[in-house]
Design brief:
By secondary structure, this protein is mainly α. The chain has a single domain, classed as F1F0 ATP synthase subunit C (F1FO ATP Synthase, Up-down Bundle).
């Protein structure tokens, strides 16, 4: 009987899992941030510069999480 759970297969599955979660969660966060900031600007247009500044900062942090997932998956792939 062939053993299909070789270390290479497990490594590939780990990479796929990390990249899947590592991109799905930030994508959802970015969608929520964009939606709520557009809603806030629509309710109070005078506060648009403050809202945009906070939104861009939050988007950068959410995107950093995706980059961390990419880095971890590359470490797993090449180590």
């Amino acid at each position: 009987m062939l053993d299909i759970m070789t270390p290479e297969v497990l490594k590939t599955l780990a990479i796929a899992f990390i990249m899947g979660l590592g991109t799905l969660a930030p994508a959802i966060a970015i969608g929520i941030i964009g939606s709520k900031s557009a809603e806030a600007i629509g309710r109070n247009p005078e506060a648009a510069p403050k809202v945009q500044t906070a939104m861009i900062l939050a988007l950068a942090f959410a995107e950093a999480i995706a980059i961390y997932g990419l880095v971890v998956s590359l470490i797993i792939k090449f180590v």
